[in-house]
Amino acid sequence: MYVVSSDRLRLRPLSTADTDWWVRLHADPEVGRFVGSYTREQAEARLRGIEEQWERRGHGLCAIELAATGETIGRAGLFWWEQFDETEAGWTLARAHWGHGYATEAARAVLDWGFGPLALPRITAMIHHGNHGSTAVARRLGFTPLREDELAGRPLTVHVLTRTGHRTDRI
Fold it and tell me: With contact defined as beta carbons under 8 Å apart, do 7 and 105 qualify?
């Protein structure tokens, strides 16, 4: 079941069936630098939480697949952070797929979904300091810095985009 798609990408809900892939994705030191690495047990627990969020909220994180081949190249989606009382748009790609515009394309599709059918009033993007690639994606999509915060003891900048500020034609 695909919940979001674009010209080149399809997004489907992540599940515990993605555990081995999740561990491999996050094992790359450049990917894990900002999103951490996972043991198999940690990945299963995280994915169970994602499945629960899909059940409770009707949205969550997705696997990003190339439409042409079905290859899973990353993850993106909407994640509810209870401690912040916010829905975040997030994106993480395997390093081999950086620099092709996939993060922006996937995130734009996620925003269209969040502001369209889900009717969210605002969506945040939490970006760790030094993650210049994700900051550039957020700017391209129209996000603006909202506040400084921290997650799991690491500083980050929370960016925000409102439904009224979202433009589907933004490149």
Answer: yes
> Per residue in 72-84, pLDDT tens?
999 999 999 998 9
Give per-residue burial for 110-145: e unless 16+ CB within 10 Å, then b.
bbebbbeeeebebbbbbbbeebeebbebbeebbbee
If 0-12 CB within 10 Å is exposed, 13-18 middle and 19+ buried, where does residue 20 land?
exposed
Question: Could you say which architecture CATH assigns to the domain 4-165?
Answer: 3-Layer(aba) Sandwich (3.40)
* Cut 0.85: pTM above it: yes
- Is the pLDDT at 115 greater than 60? The verdict is yes
Rounded mean pLDDT of 100-117? 96
Strand partners, 128: 156
Question: Residue 170: its pLDDT value, please?
Answer: 52
CA dist 110 and 132 (Å) reads 20
pLDDT tens digits along 23-50: 999 999 999 888 889 999 999 999 999 9
